[in-house]
Amino acid sequence: MDSNTAFVMRLAVIVSLGGFLFGYDAAVISGAIGFVVTEFGLDDWQTGFVVAAPSLSGMIAIGAGPISDLIGRRKILIIIASLYVISAVLSAIAPSYQALYAARFIGGLAFASLALAPIYISEIAPAELRGRLVSINQLNIVVGFSAAYFSNNFFQKVTGSDADWVQTLLIDEHTWRWMLGAEILPALAFFVLLFTVPESPRWLMIKGRIEEARSVISRIVPEHQLQSQIETIKASISAEQETFFSRVSRVFSSKWRYALTIGLVVAVAQQITGINAIYFYAPTIFEQSGVGTDAAFTQAVWIGITNIVFTLLAMLMIDRLGRKPLLVAGLLGVFISMGICSYGFSQAQYGFSEQSVAALSEDIDKAALEGLAGETFRDDVALKTALKERLGDAAFQVHQGELLQAGVSLNSQLILIGILGFVASFAFSLGPVMWVLLPEIYPNSLRGVAMAVVGVCNSGISYGVQVVFPWELSTFGASVTFLVYSLFALFFLVLVMRLLPETKGKSLEQLERELARKTTAAVAA
What is the pTM of this model? Predict the structure, then answer.
């Protein structure tokens, strides 16, 4: 590996640590939320709100794109890192539901790293490496997911141990606080490392800081390509520095309507097919299959491992096969795997035998369950409603894993296969491809604003999915919920096949010209 490539890779790895923190922050709540619900007595909507709080503020954070157009990518990245640190500290010590919501809301402001890291990396990366380098951000996201699932599983296991250090550190009493607080260390590392990263050369060129840009570009490309790279960037930058509102207007203009449509289709597809319901509620979903709480945490670890494996595969293939083939294959996989989950839950049997009631732990009021033995229920909604009526919401939440393990009979392996198939399909396609594709289809002068517009839509859909999921699961049941995700995947598969162009191996400036021509042709037709 030559020195230029090594330098670019180092920058990509550091900047994409924001992706790791996003992944950890997103997934860690999946293990903590059960403890939080019990401690603060949350209902379905409150549960959804506290889980989804970062996605709500994430819509505000998307403004970091256009702000970075004004003050620079590097400065915004440093602010993002500091927000991750503050959020992790406040989450770990939150004394109430409202305080935890506020802490997670602050963390969501740091989710701007999702859009800003791909912008920065795409602006430093050579065209032939851009797909793989931007995908490092997605790889770090899934590594963060996996780290959170392993961390959650670790704290869940040690909570039940009698080790002296567990009692000394109060892990058994404050399990969820340790889960959330573990984010502090990587957040601090990200903050410190960002001070070794230079500013984006394309941003420097836009601001007229040519010599600074030249210095950075000289470390990115070989010397014989230096001047041509500078001239190419110069040619793509308008001499007139537009106002923010002027750039917003141009994003929605007829010239860029095609690119905006593509961005919105991919952004909506990435979230509405349910990925954050899986990531943020993984143990809860596995509990619905009756495997028990400990097994649910263990199975969630497999989500992290699957994520990493298929993201690595996508990174190897994205610059070989292209963006569109990966998206088509991934959406088809999502459609099939969510269909498998829906079918698996629809074939389940719900009810208690006398033996299963008798085997419940002494902490559960078995007298309240008298008369349930031998009764069958049409679905998981009916079963949980009956349990809540007899035990009360609070007792049901505390013992939900054990109660569902005793009252649900289904092929849990089929559900696991469906969930892992979904995660694999997403990690191979919608996850990395979106963040590679979006910076490619917008010109230098509009990239920050356009990413903000698309990002707000993406975060808004994500927020809706997370908030609604607990209510949806309680109201319609697991089978219908997963069927809806499957049908959304089929719909967006058709749209992607019809609309999406291929962008691999093309310079940002070349893509700018081609997309403008496509829009002109579409308007003329």
Answer: 0.74
